Amino acid sequence: MAGYRDWIDKERLTEILRDLVRIPSVNPGFPDGHGEAEVARYVKSFFEELGLKAEMQPVEAGRDNVIGTLPGAGDAHLLLEAHMDTVQTAGMSVDPFGAAVKDGRLYGRGACDTKASLAAMLAAVETLARRGAVPAANVHVAAVVDEEIMYRGVAKLAEHIEGGRLRYDAAIVGEPTNLNVIVAHKGVVRCHIDVHGVAAHSSTPESGVNAIEHMAELVLYLKRMAQTELPAMLHPLTGAPTLCISMIQGASLRTR
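Predicted structure:
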């Protein structure tokens, strides 16, 4: 394995990562989200310039997964998966798309989560292809959309696997884990809860229904549930489930 690692040109790997970070791909679910289309085009062109096949997998309007293939010697199929979208850039103290390198670190939105993973996968494929090395398994690199919000990209990929259009014998998913191999994941369930009230003048609150107060009661209920019920749902690898209330928004809709 050490010999294969020596094949990787670190300067080229940095160049690929800089290219990716310099392409804005904030998830469109966030304010001023750019979407992943430009990164998808970059990945597709990357494979095509190597003379390799790359397919666009439509997920929703303007948002496509890209699946590039490095043919192998056998019938086995290995999936390398990484997402193309990032979270928002608000509050960053560096140029989010500058990809500046300082003291051996590259700075920018998505540099760690998870364009570094995608860059490593692309660099590995490029290295093997240019050296004429044929891997034992067919290698697919799937660059997917929408990891940061609703997971539509990987859901579409899973749909094709379940339907038999794609088959994999093993998969490696790129995420920042300090190079630790992670074999279990909590998963996620997201809930959107609406609490409705009736507007009234602040001098006569009894004539209305205060949705904020009712939401406060609901938040306290969920917190108590998390403290009393979730610890019992212990998993040997991931620990107990967690609960995070991350956003509250309010608006006046109607009056009595």
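Summary: The mean pLDDT is 94.
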